[in-house]
Please model this.
Amino acid sequence: MNCGACCAMYRVSFYWGEADDALGGWVPADTTEQLTPTLRCMRGTSIKTPRCEQLQGQIPGALCGIYENRPSVCRELEPYDADGKPTDQCTRARAAHGLP
Ligand code: SF4
Model:
């Protein structure tokens, strides 16, 4: 990943068991915050102008500071769908940052 627009656009929430203070979890728990009894989110993404605290650098060209341990939702967001078309989530995030 070397864009980062989506990391500064959406609330990045996921099942709490992905955090490493749960058995089998891998996302550093101290980079997350509790949303509900079963959901956490990446710190910095649950505010009006979200930006994940783990995002390093300027968009575009920013890097994930916990890339190998990022939550599933980050792994699943693709810039292109199976037909090779840009995905809505990616397009919206890039547009919000003035990117094509
Ligand atoms: S964990 Fe990494 S990939 Fe996920 S939102 Fe934060 S900076 Fe982006």
Remarks:
- Strands lie at 13-15, 32-34, 39-42, 55-56, 63-64.
- Residues 6-96 form one domain.
- The CA atoms of residues 32 and 43 lie 5 Å apart.
- The chain has one domain: 6-96.
